[in-house]
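Task 17 of the worksheet. Students: predict the tertiary structure of the chain below and write it out as structure tokens. Keep your answer in the requested format; marks are given for formatting as well as content.
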Amino acid sequence: MRLPWLGKPAQEEDPYWDFFLNTAPDDVRNSLVTTIRNAPEGAINPVKEDIHTPEVMARHVKELGAYLGADLVGIARTEREDYPFAVLIAMRAAWDPRASPGIGGQLPLQKGLFVSFVMSAWFREMGYKGTVKEPVDNDALAVRAGMGTLDGDGRLVSPRLGPVYVSDAILTDLPLEADG
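Model answer:
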């Protein structure tokens, strides 16, 4: 049996590749992105946990992000009084999820949303605010956190990883040391 796409780059000849990357699900319930984004956030624990210094807490946040699968984790100061910090989660992304609506094209977005969801829940469990529901410019905050620079398409490029996708920023009042 001869398969015409074997031995060639997948995106050139594989009949399913274009569908996998570029065809959005017919039913949004088949998308993990929809499920995570529509999940309600939990309550903030009324008793705040004692934390170490902001430097130590920032290190713990980055270690948790790496443990959960984030390729990069950065922390930026915001201009907001209610949420003075933003935690940014970035995932390697050969294809830009903004331009690739298929299940395969959305994989970095799905991974990033999972990490952001778990981490924001951890912040709330410790008695601090943690939300991904507030709209902010994730890529600009990632640049402010020193995670990379923006290319001509407005996509973050990490010096170590190349093009990455920045997930929804976690806004928090947890005392952290900002990067950048």
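Marker's comment: Helices lie at 10-13, 17-22, 32-38, 54-68, 107-125, 138-144. The mean pLDDT is 90.
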